[in-house]
What we know:
The chain is 24% helix and 33% strand. The protein is α+β, with helices and mostly antiparallel strands. The strands form 4 sheets. Strands 7-8-9-3-10-11 form a 6-stranded mixed sheet, with helices on both faces. The longest helix is centred in the middle third of the chain and has 18 residues, at 166-183.
Amino acid sequence: MSLSLDIRKRYPGFTLDMQLEAGEERVALLGASGCGKSCTLRCIAGVETPDEGRIVVNGVTFFDSARRINLSPQKRKCALLYQSYQLFPNLTVAENVCAGMDRARPAPELRALAERYLAIFGMERFAERYPAQLSGGQQQRVALARMVAARPGIYLLDEPFSALDAYLKSALEQNLLDLFDVVGSTVLYVSHDIDEACRLCDRICVVHEGRVAESGTPEELMRRPQTLAALRLTGCKNTSPARKVGETVVEALDWGMTFDVGAPVPNDVAYLGVRASYFHRDNRRAPGRNTYDLTVVRVSDARFERLVLLEPPRADSPHLLQWKVNLVGADRDALPREGETLRMHFDARRIHLVSR
């Protein structure tokens, strides 16, 4: 199973220019809204037509502008699952699942297969209901069963879990992982959630302004991001334009702070990033290199962590530093509070530098 993609499509104010190769793997297209992720899936499925380029799936040419090939969506045998499910309202659940199968099979065989696929997602007892009689989560499960029943050559999923609650989302993710381990097909999964992409995919392509900015395993992108887009999409809350000021020293221009990163700084460094959990309070150190006294501007608590906003040394900076503090087992009286000045140390090994 494979995908070879090299396409360009121009929209008003935006150009999609995507190159992507994928094998029998799960690949996430990770990016902000409007960056071209969903457009890419629609071009593969034949819902939209590129202006030029080539799309080949499992050795079959779906689109080739030079050879004037453009297969219809029906001939491409793709499974494209949107957030909106797109079930047929006039068909029962079982009939919706059968709709994607080979209609040459006998009706009893189609029905038995539909019930088998529905059972994968715990929906077999709803076979005679209509979509309007189901909750959103149940409709989502039926759409997944229909997608799998079609036995497509490639799976295309466009943020299918974005409207589900956390519990149901987690359960369906595990269903999908079990399923994808068996089907052995190429999977493209669109997301803007780095955690979701890490859980579901073997490889992540960071999409920025219509192009793949970089690609790698989840671990590679988290440990060694190469672009500002990857830094931000992998959850780095603190980024700043940067410039080299010494062999191993870099300045964060937005914050008025310099850091010795303990290794040669590239001459073309453009941005610096520090993750919100990658620096810590340390009153043992004196203020100086990589250690600053910062004032707490605001705190807010989630279930398991406190988000602390810190004012950087540059007085006119509109950019506050974000620091995350683990609340599990923490002494509540020792937690940072608004108005406090804290001595914060930044670990040189955990400062990301990128050139674009």
